[in-house]
Amino acid sequence: MSGELKKIISLFLIILLVSCSDESLYIVQTPIDKIKDPNADYNEIRNAYFGDTHVHTKHSFDAYLFGTTGSPSDAYRYARGETVKHPAGFDMKLVEPLDFYMVSDHGFFMGMMEAYADTSTEISNAPGAEAFHNMNAPENLTLENGATRLNTFAQTLQNFFLNPRSYFDPELWQAVLTNNLARGLKIYDHDVHLSAWADVVKAANDAYDPGNFTTFIGYEFTTSTDVANENLHRNVMFKSSNAPKRPYTRIDSINPEDLWTWMDKIREQGIDSIAFPHNSNGSNGQMFEMETFFGEPLSKEYAALRMRNEPIVEMTQVKGTSDTHPLLSPNDEWADFEIMEARIGSIPPAFSFPAGGYVRDAYVRGLMSNQFGTGNPYKFGLIGASDTHVIGAGLREENYWSKIGLVDADPRARGSIPVSEEDRNVVPNRGGVSFKEFEQGDYVIGGLENWGASGLAGAWAEENTRESIFNAFRRKETFATSGPRILVRFFGGFDINELTFSDEDIIKSAYETGVPMGGDIFAEETDKAPSFLVWAQRDVNGAPLQRVQIIKGSISRADSSPTEKVYDIACSDGLQVDPKTNRCPDNGARVDIETCAVSQNVGSAELKVIWTDPDFNKDDSSFYYVRVLENPTCRWSTWDAIRAGFKPREDLHDTIQDRAWSSPIWYTPDNAENPPPIRINAERL
Amino acid sequence: MLRKIAIFLVIGILILSLDLTFSKFKDEKIIYVTEEEIYSLMNSWALQVGRNPNPEEAKAVIDNLIEEEILYREALRLGLDANDQIIKRRLAQKLMFLKQESKGTKLTDLEISEFYENNLDKYLIPEQYDFTHVYFSKEDEGSARAQNAKALLDKSQEIKGDVFFLGKNFTNKSPKELRKDFGINFSSELENLKLNEWSQPIESTYGSHLIKLVGFQAARIPELEEIKPRVMVDLELERKDSTLSNYLNELKEDYEVIISRNLKQTYSE
């Protein structure tokens, strides 16, 4: 009996030990007592701050492979306006420093690649690691070397990364006991991993300068479906200076729902965090699916779990923009913008199914789910970010270096100018890269030509502190741009149309009478249509504005059929919207493709309007978001071409209309007397 | 002299023979297995396997420990630890962690003011402008309206402009911020303005502005008392980083570093 009891007690103790020793749930206390700069702004009607929350450094396994040796501290120096080096040797510097920045290295295998390359580490002796020895020594940082790297990587990947340890290896037991599968892999060194993560945390805390420059501790949860490896990547951003001892990664689980549950658990310990998915465009429709990860029907609980943890989506970045796809929005003339339709990581590129992969479509799906009685899991705000893998992004078309270091530093490698037969050694040598003959010669095709100089996150916050900017993300009072610092204010409500632009306190009044971007408006007794205040201002270093639009989507209460409409609501140069077509007349802005010169004195420095929905139906759930378009300018591929003495490649857009998108404002008809009709999804039965 | 040498030798031989005698009893060849060691070994065994070891298994565990210790000592005796990169790294890492964690002492006023004096450029506040403005949007013939408004102002009449996106009153604006908010040449136009007088129209990216400068602070370094808390935080941060390097520097003084001559020649530029 007592033996039995002993057994039970020891079993209990073991379970206790196991659950206690999960380092992803152990919070390392690193309090910082920084003083906010007394000269810095505090603005009760909020300032717009710009930042990049998607930045990889040498600690990311792929970034190191692309030749990146810059550390998280170097990344923060770049964000503050200092000059740093690209792996290919040239200088990188921002035209305007950023207000906030987050290093977001891949969680899994964080720090490992540098340890394989450093031949003095224990793990560099692991079988297979010799392929990476001294990889980023100065003599190896050449374009030719970069071109062969992806190939090395692809060949080594299979038989290198996923080798489990033997049963007799104590590390395997540690893996089980500490609930950390990664430790069970032969080429994984836990100390290296922990010290890389500690470096990420320390760099963020050291670089934080409250009032002037905000940093966030963060990382990327780089997961995908197990069926066809469909992209489900998201970044995790922590609010405080404390962080878990190790990040929760795709080795712990490939299911994003498990990530959210983990975030819930550490939130209970006082560490708030939010995650934002990216590259939904390359998810083959999986990012905003109408079912859970395991194919279960959506539910209110799922919607609540997702929205609690993922109130934001990164909708534009170097690997394309996920506003909408021309196939999804055939009546939107501006839908064909930086479309990247390859599945992330597919070699050779496989087509990514658009439905379920773009935010506008996701908003419609969310309304639909809500109408089915299963809550709205897709009621998120928008940001842009770069996803640079070289610690800093070049977000300007005329100064673009793509994002994967040595692999795409050369215009020939990214397909913007032709490659001669003898120069093929600078082109990525991997499966999926092929050549296509155009008028001026053979070009690389394979995806890099469809990447772009995007994006940036804007946040409306009272002051430049972690707390204030994080809260803006939580409120969804954020906007996205494809690179330029376009400013956009957006308010909605039933009495917004009573405001006037001659009132000095119009913004204060707008906060009092309506809701800002990311907010909700609810059905009122009257039949009055909601009205919206939109005010956009150009970037002093960008192009003038051409037009401001409202994109509206709604669901019919009667039969759940969706409608989508794009309204021009303000035109540049004093032009008026044609009420029949809802379009601005051509403002005449043109680009000279031979020099990239643009029309002078065309376009507006600011556009502002109060707009009332002319097609409002009180019964239909709807969302509204703003899109601001700049005048056209040369796309990066055109700049590459004319600098090298070529014409732009024929199958690429030679110009681009950079733009900004606000987070939506949602209109909900439901209230206590008028609940949403519950429908059964016939397809699922 | 000879006597001195003889005494020296006698004492020397005495010490040597004592050492040789006692070295046989030295713990070099003795392995102590303490109770704590056994206890912790059994515990981790139980943790991994899920039950307590039976006597046979316990013996195996202890034998393992003993064998490991013997092999370790023999390896040390043979000098296998010397010049092994892995062992060096490990030991260095261990010490590094220990040193970084050790707590710093309280900061004295002298240290704070010294740090402040040595980092004055870090606390430099660039020149700052406080101003209010009347804005005339480019979208609505701003330049002409600004001219008219200035004429009215000169006759002390009321004027009205447009609402500016970023507001009406600005305080503590540095040239860098002005460049970002108004455009490239804006701050240089402000340099020549007189306090509390309306300016001629000044062009920004967005239109024309009549500006009344209400305050100007030249670039300055704040007094220590103003920013003492910030200086203390900075000093503490620096302390943390320098604990390790100080420790290293102290140790470096005890070492003589000799670098292979060939290597020196290769890198001597």
- The tally of helices of chain A reads 13
Weakly predicted, low-confidence segments of chain B? none
Q: Biggest interface in this structure?
A: A-B, 38 and 37 residues
Average residue-wise pLDDT of chain B:
82
| Strand neighbour order, sheet with most strands of chain B | 2-1-4-3
Inertia-based shape of chain A? globular
| Uncertain regions spanning at least 5 consecutive residues of chain A | 681-685
Query: Assembly type of the shown chains?
Result: heterodimer
Radius of gyration of chain A: 26 Å
Q: Mean pLDDT of chain A, rounded to whole units?
A: 92
The backbone outline of chain B, from C-alpha atoms, is elongated
Count of individual beta strands of chain B: 4
Q: Give the amount of beta strand of chain B, in percent.
A: 5-15%
Gap from first CA to last CA of chain B: 55 Å
What does this structure look like?
The complex is a heterodimer of chains A (685) and B (269). With 685 residues, chain A is α+β, with helices and mostly antiparallel strands. Chain A has a domain at 489-668. Helices cover 21% and strands 21% of the residues of chain A. Chain A has 13 helices and 30 strands. In chain A, helix 3 (72-79) runs parallel beside helix 7 and helix 8 (256-268) packs across helix 9. The longest helix of chain A has 19 residues, at 2-20. Chain B folds into four domains: 1-28; 31-82; 83-123 and 222-269, no CATH class; 125-217, Chitinase A, domain 3 (Roll), CATH 3.10.50. In chain B, helix 5 crosses helix 9 (224-254). Chain B is elongated and about 110 Å long. The A-B interface holds A 7, 10-11, 14, 17, 33-35, 37-39, 41, 96, 120-122, 125, 173, 177, 191, 206, 485, 487, 489, 501-504, 506, 535, 537-538, 540, 574, 604-607 and B 46-48, 50-52, 85-86, 89-90, 93, 125, 128, 137-139, 160, 162-163, 165-166, 168, 172, 179-184, 205-207, 227, 229-230, 233, 237.
